[in-house]
Amino acid sequence: KHRARYAQPSNPYHIAMSFGLERLHRHLQAQGCRGGTTPLLFERRGGKEDAELEAAFRRLCESRTTPGGPLPFQMVLTAKTCNSAGLQLADLVARPIGRKVIKPEQENRAYDILRRKFRRSPTGRVLGWGLKIFPS
After folding, report:
1. What is the pLDDT of residues 33-71, one digit of tens each?
2. How many angstroms separate the Cα of 7 from the Cα of each of 1, 3, 18, 38?
3. Which segments of 1-136 does DSSP mark as H helices, in order?
C-alpha cells in the first residue's frame, strides 16, 4: 500500500520511528515529565543501516521541536546479543499488534490483552492515539 500510494515512498522504519517519537513525547508530557533527555534503545542492524537510522533519528528530533527545543531523546544503539529486556518486551508487543493489523479476522489473544493498555482519546478512541496504522 505504501509503495502504491507514494511516488517516492519514505523508509517505513523511519516513518514508524517518527510516529513513535511523537507519541512518546506526548505521553511523557502528559505524565508531567519536563526537562532532561530520555535515552531510547535501538537494535543494531549493520553499519550502513545504523548510520541511516541515526541520521533519520537526529533529523526527526531536530525538526519536531517543542516549546523547550528539539525532541529530548538520545539514541542508544545496542547489539541484539545484549538481550535487553526492553527490546524483548518491544518485540513481544509489536508482533501481536502487527498480526492483528495484517489479519484482523484471525484470533489473537495477545492483542486482546494488549489493546486494553493502548492510549486513548478523552472519548475512548484508540486509533490515532494508541494505535496508528499507516498507510490507512
Report:
1. 888 899 999 999 999 999 999 999 999 999 887 777 789
2. 12, 7, 20, 35
3. 2-5, 12-30, 47-63, 85-102, 109-114
